[in-house]
Amino acid sequence: MSWKKKAEAEAAQLAEARKRRKEVEIEKLKKENAEAEAARDEARSHRERSERREVQTCATLALRNNEIEELTSLLIDQEQVKAELESAKKDLQLAKIETAEATHRLTETEEKLESS
Question: Could you give the CA distance from residue 34 to residue 2 in angstroms, rounded to a whole number?
Fold first, then answer.
């Protein structure tokens, strides 16, 4: 074989080898790109799930806050009713004392009238 044909054959082999290396690199880049896209998709999905959980948590907290406000209002009402009941008990006790005193005075007056 002549040196010219040898050089052409070698050049063809080198070109083929370069072509294969480029194809390998391209496949490697495609694979890395696909992996990066999959990682981005997973991160996006994770972020969306986190956002949904956060919204759900906020909604739950808002409901619980409303429940707490309602219970607090009921407790305040209950304390007011309790205070009114205590006041009514004191008023009743005073009325009983006054009635007992009036009954006692009436009895004394009746006894004085009977003895006179």
Answer: 48
Separation of alpha carbons 108 and 94, rounded Å: 21
From residue 45, give the alpha-carbon distance in Å to each of 17, 37, 103: 42, 12, 85
* Cα distance between residue 101 and residue 14, in whole Å: 128
Tokens of 75: 């407790």
Cα angle 94-95-96, degrees, rounded to a multiple of 5: 90
CA distance 112 to 72: 59
Q: Tokens 């999905």, residue?
A: 45
Q: What pLDDT digit, counting tens, does each position of 35-86 carry?
A: 999 999 999 999 999 999 999 999 999 999 999 999 999 999 999 999 999 9
Residue 67 burial (C-beta neighbours within 10 Å; 0-12, 13-18, 19+): exposed
Report which residue type is found at 85. L
